[in-house]
Amino acid sequence: MYTAHRRHGTIYAWDLRTHLDAPLATYVVSHDTDRTNQKIKFDIDPAGRWLASGDHRGSISIFDLHDPDASASPETVTTTTKHTRPVLEFPAHDDAVGSVAFHPLRPSLLSVSGSRHFLAPDSDSDSDSDANTETRVVQRVRPTVMDQSIKTCETFEAASDAIQEIMTKSALSDGSGSRTLTEPLLIWIDWQGSKIVQATVQSGDVDDISHSLCKLIVALGDHSTSYISANLASPITVVPAPSPPGTPIIPTKTRGELCQSFLRLVLSYTGLRGYYGVDEEESEMTLAFWYLFQEALWSNDYYVEEDVEGSGSTTLDAGAEVQVLAKAAYSELVQVLRRKVAFPGKGAGWSKGVFLPTTIHAQADTPVTIDQVEKFQV
Asked: Do residues 48 and 15 touch, judged by C-beta distance below 8 A?
């Protein structure tokens, strides 16, 4: 049995089959342990050969559990148990390494770092004046991946591509699997995808993850157009899957709310800042969805079943609310497309390319770029 303790830089190995007066072996991770009170979790690889642990300095230590010098027999254990040093120690992060974990199948070790940092007032001055009080800001360090073959963007892109394949080339294609595919994706896109889209709209920069998310949204729109149009104003609640312990609880929303959130995200990509073909490539990807969505709206019959006191009435038309929502979406789409198709005005330049003296505007000093000329001379 292996044990570790807070504010203590040693991992203990105990043999429960013998006396417990002293540990069988100790593995010294760090001598300086007063800088953090957080838990430092260690891990042992599936083969039982290697023990890994981080420390408050940001380093990771690897111990060989099969090293004959790393342990002692129960008969030779004394109160002065030998401290075993790591066979490998390397700096991994700029903050405390709270946990490490061996991959169950691949020869990879994952690590995570971070600790709480507080604003500390500068104590060099005894003055009580706010003007003489400075604040030292300790910046948080972003976690990094030591195994460069594992990247967040690549993992997301691979998962996104796999889901797109499922929606187009499997038994769940052509709108099938609304409960097992469409609704879980709508929940995730509303919960997490909206944050990616919001960051993209604010920064104007479409990174690899945002581009892959746009492809996923477009694929979901092509797959579930009928579902989205039929449930645009649906009051039926969609209950998300239970969240794992320690993770945020996913909010519960109706089908109508999820579908409306989906349309907002599609509109966000359709109306990205800049000009298609030079500044961004995503706005054109969403255009086909709006044609499919329009056809689906025309083909749907909107009726809400009611059974008030056994009357069995089914005559309440729900199309009016859907028409209001659809009209609002397409009105905004028209405004977006009018802006997107407009030729850059005088004095406008592209966000990419090399600026050249203009010959197409009246003003001689109006900047224009190579990309702009090539785009509009086709």
From this structure: no
pLDDT in tens, the chain (378 residues): 888 887 777 888 888 877 777 788 888 887 565 566 677 889 999 888 899 998 888 889 999 888 655 444 445 545 456 668 888 888 888 888 888 999 988 888 999 888 766 555 454 444 444 444 444 443 433 333 444 444 456 688 888 999 999 999 888 888 889 999 999 999 999 988 999 999 999 888 888 889 999 999 999 999 999 999 999 999 999 988 877 677 678 889 999 999 999 999 999 999 988 777 666 788 889 999 999 999 999 887 654 444 444 444 433 456 788 889 999 999 999 998 888 887 666 655 555 444 444 444 444 444 444 444 454 443
Residue 43's nearest CA partner among 112, 100, 114 is 100
To the nearest 5 percent, what fractions of the chain are helix, strand and coil?
35, 15, 45
Residue whose token pair is 């001598």 = 31
**Cα 315 from Cα 306, distance rounded (Å):** 8
Which residues, 6+ apart, have CB-to-CB distance to 325 below 8 Å? 232, 233, 260
User: CB-side exposure of 200: number of CA atoms within 13 Å?
Assistant: 28
Crossing angle between the packed helical segments 194-203 and 255-270, to the nearest 10 degrees: 30
Residue 280: phi and psi, rounded to 5, are -155, 160
Determine the Cα–Cα distance for residues 233 and 210; give it in Å rounded to an integer: 28
The pTM (predicted TM-score) of the whole model is 0.53
Radius of gyration, CA atoms only, the chain: 30
List all residues 6 or more positions away from 65 whose beta carbon is below 8 Å from its beta carbon. 44, 48, 49, 50, 51, 71
Give the span between the Cα atoms of 295 and 332, in whole angstroms. 18
Q: Which residues contact 95 (CB under 8 A, 6 or more apart)?
A: 58, 113, 114, 115, 140, 141
Q: With contact defined as beta carbons under 8 Å apart, do 357 and 370 qualify?
A: no
